[in-house]
């Protein structure tokens, strides 16, 4: 990298960081609460958590380390995905340079700096951005060796990164798919076996470390695999999450009738995949590997199975496609580079439409955090009162208090009959999306509050904006008198 390119990539990174902190999201969704509480337990030497989230030690241990080094806050919680996001911008540059030219690399890096999905999830503690970074780094190292740009020993590092991606989320196995034809071709070469062995040695190094850790933790070295199998069943997922049209609609901004739309909320990806599709049709020789990388993973995400014992369509959420972000921006960068002045028009179009959509999307993504903070700001003024709420609200109260709230004062509303609620307490209704989104929870809440004692008084209603799940209701905090 020459001095000019170093300066440009530095400016792109500063721009990317500025956007990501301008549109910072923080602790707001659902899964992040599990990682946070497990990390807090790890800080205190408690290895006793179980389940798929506890098995993702590539998420929980880095978070615990952030808390140990910098304390507990929204910024330290999301430092890990933020660093991975900036690392991905560097990977976009390196990938574009590897497959085409440094100019394509710079274009790809700039595209990723304002990609709406990437901006949002850079500041949400979910596995998708770390998985994108480590999985893509492994693939790029592999292809750099294949193109003889790096020594063969780097295959061991590539394998280690694939293994580490598995510790982030078992979904990372899709990152091996683009490598399979090249690994298979090496079998036919005289010294190909040693190359495959180097790569597999890296993977097995991490799997061995994980197995040893899990044996110490719960006497099952393969607990990650076993518990993932229990989760990856058709009964576990809602039909909308395994709908075969889900990804095409998200990628190309289609409504439920598959008509193109131009409004929020379908354009999480902006218009990037429109131009990625065009790039695939105009693909030149240098872009064959990125095209294969994107298509092979996407086709598995679209038609593949999450289970080896039965066909379970892949779980589909917009953030899951971040695993193909790097090859996508490389392909679009190549298209922009090869189309000259028209490429400048494409870049300008993507830039301004992306900023428009991120501005709209961000407003919805921060709403949950606003609701939770509103609840906490009210109840924190009464530190000795019992609080009855759903588990998501209780997790937020623990978090915002820096885990200093007395655990004995926090009670699950679903498991507590109203006649057992202690005097001088708070009861929170509709504190999280579960009580609206999940019919069973909704019925329980409605039944409970239909018999609410008349002596309870409404202490506060947390008013939020009418957007998304969290716009369907406003949390209410009731006071139970002495």
Could you characterize what this model shows?
The chain has two domains: 3-365, no CATH class; 367-480. Strand 1, helix 20 and strand 2 form a beta-alpha-beta unit. By secondary structure, it is mostly helical. Helices cover 59% and strands 5% of the residues. The chain has a five-stranded mixed beta sheet. It has 22 helices and five strands.
Cα-based radius of gyration, to the nearest Å? 24 Å
Shape: globular
- Alpha plus pi helix count: 22
SSE ordering: HHHHHHHHHHHHHHHHHHHEHEEHHEE
Give the integer mean of the pLDDT values. 88
Count structural domains.
2
Separation, N- and C-terminal Cα atoms? 70 Å
Walk across the major sheet and give the strand order: 2-1-3-5-4
Q: Estimate percent helicity.
A: 55-70%
Quaternary structure state of the chains depicted: single chain
| Amount of beta strand | under 5%
Structural class category: mainly alpha
For the report, how would you describe the main beta sheet?
Answer: 5 strands, mixed
Q: Which parts are unreliable, with pLDDT below 50 for 5 consecutive residues or more? A: none
How many beta-strand runs?
A: 5
SSE map:
Layout: H1 3-22, H2 31-43, H3 52-55, H4 57-70, H5 74-77, H6 79-99, H7 102-113, H8 116-121, H9 128-146, H10 154-168, H11 180-187, H12 192-218, H13 223-231, H14 246-252, H15 272-281, H16 288-303, H17 325-338, H18 341-365, H19 367-379, E1 386-389, H20 391-400, E2 410-412, E3 425-429, H21 434-437, H22 439-450, E4 457-461, E5 476-480
């Amino acid at each position: 990298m020459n001095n000019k390119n170093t300066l440009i990539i530095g400016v792109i990174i500063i721009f990317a960081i500025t956007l990501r902190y301008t549109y910072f999201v923080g602790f707001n969704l659902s899964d992040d609460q599990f990682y946070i509480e497990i990390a807090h337990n790890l800080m205190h030497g408690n290895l006793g958590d179980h389940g798929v989230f506890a098995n993702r030690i590539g998420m929980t241990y880095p978070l615990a380390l952030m808390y140990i080094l910098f304390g507990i806050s929204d910024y330290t919680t999301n430092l890990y995905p933020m660093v991975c996001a900036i690392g991905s911008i560097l990977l976009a540059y390196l990938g574009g340079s590897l497959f085409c030219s440094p100019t394509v690399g710079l274009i790809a890096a700039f595209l990723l700096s304002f990609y709406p999905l990437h901006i949002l999830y850079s500041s949400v503690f979910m596995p998708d951005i770390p998985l994108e970074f480590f999985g893509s780094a492994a693939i790029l190292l592999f292809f750099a060796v294949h193109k003889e740009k790096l020594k063969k020993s780097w295959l061991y590092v590539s394998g280690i990164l694939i293994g580490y991606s598995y510790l982030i989320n078992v979904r990372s196995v899709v990152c091996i798919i683009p490598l399979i034809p090249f690994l298979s071709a090496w079998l036919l070469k005289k010294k190909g076996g040693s190359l495959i062995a180097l790569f597999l040695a890296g993977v097995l190094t991490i799997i061995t470390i994980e197995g040893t850790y899990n044996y110490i933790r719960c006497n099952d070295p393969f607990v990650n695999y076993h518990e993932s199998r229990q989760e990856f069943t058709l009964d576990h997922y809602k039909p909308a999450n395994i709908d075969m049209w889900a990804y095409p609609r998200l990628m190309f901004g289609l409504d439920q009738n598959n008509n193109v739309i131009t409004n929020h909320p379908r354009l999480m990806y902006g218009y990037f995949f429109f131009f990625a599709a065009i790039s695939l049709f105009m693909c030149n020789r240098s872009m064959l590997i990125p095209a294969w990388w994107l298509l092979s993973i996407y086709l598995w995400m679209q038609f593949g199975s999450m289970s080896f014992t039965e066909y379970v369509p892949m779980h589909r959420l917009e953030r899951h496609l971040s695993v193909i972000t790097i090859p996508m921006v490389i392909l679009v960068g190549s298209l922009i580079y090869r189309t000259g002045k028209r490429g400048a028009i494409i870049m300008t179009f993507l830039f301004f439409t992306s900023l428009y959509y991120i501005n709209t999307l961000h407003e919805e993504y921060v709403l949950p955090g606003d609701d939770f903070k509103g609840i906490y700001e009210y109840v924190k003024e009464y530190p000795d009162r019992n609080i009855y709420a759903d588990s998501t609200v209780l997790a937020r109260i623990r978090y915002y208090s820096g885990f200093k709230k007395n655990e004995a004062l926090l009670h699950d509303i679903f498991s507590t009959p109203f006649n057992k609620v202690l005097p001088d307490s708070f009861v929170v209704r509709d504190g999280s999306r579960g009580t609206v989104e999940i019919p069973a929870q909704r019925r329980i809440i409605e039944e409970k509050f239909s018999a609410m004692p008349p002596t309870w008084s409404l202490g506060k209603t947390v008013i939020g904006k009418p957007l998304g799940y969290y716009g369907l209701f406003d949390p209410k905090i009731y006071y139970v008198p002495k």
